[in-house]
């Protein structure tokens, strides 16, 4: 029989956790150059589709339990995601005709080594004859059923998860316009449930089913993941859950493909998936392409994304562009043309590749004499400790390097900085005219997490200076967050961007703390501003400030991620003396870096979904200069004749790149744009005025 296993709660962290993004997408980004379809699963009907997933997930068998659903309809299989994640091996979902056990299914049960078979649904779904045939073949058979799909899902939950701390809730029925809506959100929901080891429950769109509420209460559930937008499960259902005392996490997007992306982001908060599986998302038999994939997703760490007939939805295409070289499995019943589209070559980056093969590059900075510097976060070292998130390895491997823009040669100028295996280290650097390097060291965790760090991780969460080979911790940014928690959302720190302050010292954007802090030349820390949550269709999201640019007016301009919803991110103006921030620009997405030119134009780099470069003129006009040509762009700097961009910053198989794109090239990419944006002769920024001779010409 299925072994009952108490559900485990997954805490969805801020998007700039572990990988310094990813959650992102953290979360979502194992590698980047181009997607690579490594396997296409065969299956031309529902029975063979489920068999293909079973054989993919369990090539060597070794499974004690299998689930069995009817092959011609999906309602009873909607709740199969949770049981597919049970025990250490999980349990495959197989499909058979109602009246007879398919010979291929019988052979698969034998190959798997199954001893127990759980039938989903009543005798009208899987007949008594099939049950008898299984019993006669020596299997222990259990039937889980209810009078309709909601009741069947509750029965499955009660049998497999009598106690659970989390549950996944999906819509139960479709509308007359599109019958596939009844299973669209459950395609990805099953994978999330299997990973959480939690049940999948169903409810009508407009109200919370009473039996579902009773199960949630009796099972001790704490967190309910509501799948889809309010057209799938209404705000009334969410309110009823909240009123009943549950923590509600809505996971959804504007459509089924976007919901699948959101589910993947929630499923893989602690690190990137090992691979991506494409499943058909809209055809009449699409349920058989996706529902049986939950076991493979949970046991092998595979994110499920949707196709739409011969095409890839923009949400899937954009996510694959970010995932890049991640292995892609094309599921059964997926149109070959969609698989071919996923196997397309990577986009050619704009401009010129100055250097590549960088180990976790994060940002680029132009020094006072025109030198180009890149922060290298790297991926830890050999000082490893155990943690609830798995093994964490530290090393003094993070660097700041100078880049010879002619030869591409890199030379370490600051070495031996703390690095963590998730790609956390030196996040950003500012350089003054005396050659002092001011460095923000990332963290992506509550400050107290550092108590167990080895010495090689001691600099994480701090601001350090390096001059003439001597590196010193000047201020503990994470410690300030732990003591003051300026945004009141719980202490979490990730010093992510740094700039020279207009009145001396530096300013640092703490992405985990949702704050902008100033560190004076004596090391004293002051909070200049905190940034409010952004309201999205899926509920409030933390701001997550990622970038700072000093404006021509001397104020600080701060960009934010602002959640995964397109258009939700804002750019804030913070007075140089601190105070209430005001929105300078909005309608952006996942802003990762900012830089002004000498004429007051602000260049904005967006990481998600496809890498976007936008120019905002002083009058507020936004012009998209490049979209889809950049992969994992993380850093931006404005030179006299163009832009430097850190590309492939997270996980390209061949390492990260530094690109140079001239203003002339940008003008060609965006026809009609006038982009001669070098600093006018004699231009002096407020930073120059504050630091005088220590800055020099930019």
Notes on the protein architecture:
There is one protein chain. With 698 residues, the chain is α+β, with helices and mostly antiparallel strands. The protein has two domains: 307 residues, no CATH class; 270 residues, Neuraminidase. The protein is 20% helix and 32% strand. The protein is built from 16 helices and 39 strands. Strands 14, 15, 16, 17 and 18 form a five-stranded antiparallel sheet that branches. Strands 1-12-10-11 form a four-stranded parallel sheet, with helices on both faces. Helix 6 runs parallel beside helix 9. The chain is elongated, with a radius of gyration of 26 Å. The N terminus and C terminus are likely disordered.
Write a brief structural summary.
This protein is an alpha+beta fold. It is built from 16 helices and 39 strands.
Secondary-structure map with pairings?
Layout lengths: L35 E5 L5 H12 L7 E6 L10 H4 L8 E4 L6 H10 L3 E5 L7 H9 L3 E5 L4 H12 L5 E6 L9 H16 L3 E4 L6 H9 L4 E5 L7 H9 L3 E5 L4 H12 L7 E6 L5 H5 L3 H7 L1 E6 L6 H10 L3 E4 L5 H7 L9 E7 L2 E6 L5 E5 L6 E5 L2 E14 L6 E11 L5 E6 L5 E5 L21 E5 L2 E6 L1 H8 L10 E6 L5 E5 L4 E5 L5 E6 L3 E3 L2 E3 L3 E6 L5 E5 L8 E6 L7 E7 L2 E6 L5 E5 L5 E5 L5 E6 L7 E4 L3 E6 L8 E7 H7 L16 H6 L7
Parallel strand pairs: 1-12, 2-3, 2-4, 4-5, 6-7, 6-8, 8-9, 10-11, 10-12
Antiparallel strand pairs: 13-39, 14-15, 15-17, 16-17, 17-18, 19-20, 20-21, 21-22, 23-24, 24-25, 25-26, 27-28, 29-30, 30-31, 31-32, 33-34, 34-35, 35-36, 37-38, 38-39
């Amino acid at each position: 029989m299925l072994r009952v296993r108490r559900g485990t709660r997954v805490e969805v962290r801020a998007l700039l956790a572990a990988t310094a993004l990813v959650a992102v997408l953290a979360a979502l980004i194992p590698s980047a150059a181009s997607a690579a379809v490594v396997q296409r699963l065969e299956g031309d009907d529902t029975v063979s589709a489920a068999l293909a997933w079973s054989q993919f997930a369990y090539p060597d068998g070794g499974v004690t339990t299998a689930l069995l659903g009817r092959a011609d309809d999906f309602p009873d299989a909607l709740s199969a995601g949770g049981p597919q994640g049970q025990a250490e091996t999980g349990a495959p979902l197989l499909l058979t005709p109602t009246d007879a056990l398919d010979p291929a299914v019988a052979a698969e049960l034998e190959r798997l080594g199954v001893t127990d078979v759980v039938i989903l649904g009543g005798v009208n779904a899987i007949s008594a004859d099939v049950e008898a045939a299984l019993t006669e073949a020596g299997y222990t058979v259990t039937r889980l059923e209810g009078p309709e799909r909601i009741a069947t899902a509750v029965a499955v939950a009660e049998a497999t998860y009598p106690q659970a701390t989390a549950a996944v809730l999906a819509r139960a029925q479709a509308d007359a316009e599109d019958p596939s809506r009844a299973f669209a959100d459950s395609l990805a929901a099953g994978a999330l449930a299997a990973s959480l080891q939690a049940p999948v429950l169903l409810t009508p769109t407009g109200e919370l089913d009473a039996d579902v509420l009773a199960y949630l209460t009796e099972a001790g559930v704490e967190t309910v993941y509501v799948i889809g937008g309010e057209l799938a499960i209404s705000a009334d259902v969410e309110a009823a859950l909240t009123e009943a005392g549950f923590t509600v996490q809505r996971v959804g997007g504007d459509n089924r493909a976007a919901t699948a992306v959101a589910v993947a982001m929630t499923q893989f908060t602690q690190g990137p998936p090992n691979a991506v599986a494409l499943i058909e998302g809209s055809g009449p038999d699409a349920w058989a392409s996706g529902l049986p994939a939950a076991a493979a997703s949970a046991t092998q760490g595979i994110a499920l994304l949707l196709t739409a007939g011969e095409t890839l939805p923009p949400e899937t295409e954009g996510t694959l562009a970010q995932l890049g070289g991640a292995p892609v499995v094309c599921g059964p019943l997926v149109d070959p043309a969609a698989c071919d589209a996923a196997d397309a070559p990577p986009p050619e980056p704009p401009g010129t590749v100055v250097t590549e093969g960088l180990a976790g590059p994060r940002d680029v900075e132009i020094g006072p004499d025109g030198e180009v510097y890149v922060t290298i976060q790297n991926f830890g070292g050999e000082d490893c400790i155990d943690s609830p998130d798995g093994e964490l390895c530290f090393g003094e491997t993070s660097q700041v390097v100078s880049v010879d823009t002619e030869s591409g040669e890199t030379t370490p100028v600051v070495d031996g900085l703390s690095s963590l295996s998730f790609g956390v280290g030196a996040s950003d650097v500012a350089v003054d005219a005396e050659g002092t390097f001011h460095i923000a060291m990332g963290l992506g965790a509550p400050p107290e997490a550092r108590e167990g760090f080895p010495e090689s991780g001691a600099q994480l969460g701090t601001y350090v200076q390096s001059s003439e080979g001597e590196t010193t911790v000047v201020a503990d940014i994470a410690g300030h967050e732990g003591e003051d928690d300026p945004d009141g959302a719980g202490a979490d720190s990730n010093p992510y961007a740094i700039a020279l302050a207009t009145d001396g010292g530096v300013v640092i954007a703490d992405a985990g703390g949702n704050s902008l802090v100033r560190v004076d030349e004596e090391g004293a820390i002051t909070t200049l501003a905190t940034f409010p949550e952004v309201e999205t269709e899926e509920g409030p999201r933390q701001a997550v400030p990622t970038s700072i640019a000093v404006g021509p007016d001397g104020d600080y301009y701060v960009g934010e991620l602002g959640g995964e919803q397109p258009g939700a991110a804002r750019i804030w103006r913070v007075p140089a003396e601190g105070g209430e921030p005001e929105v300078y620009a909005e309608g952006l997405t996942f802003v990762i870096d900012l830089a002004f030119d000498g004429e007051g134009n602000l260049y904005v780099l967006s990481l998600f979904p496809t890498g976007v470069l936008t120019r905002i003129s002083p009058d507020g006009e936004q012009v998209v200069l490049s979209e889809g040509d950049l992969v994992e762009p993380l850093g931006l700097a404005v030179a006299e004749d163009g832009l430097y961009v850190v590309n492939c910053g997270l996980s390209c198989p061949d390492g990260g790149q530094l690109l140079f794109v001239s203003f002339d090239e940008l003008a060609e990419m965006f026809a009609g744009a006038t982009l001669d944006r070098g600093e006018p002769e004699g231009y002096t920024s407020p930073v120059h005025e504050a630091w005088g001779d220590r800055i020099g010409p930019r």
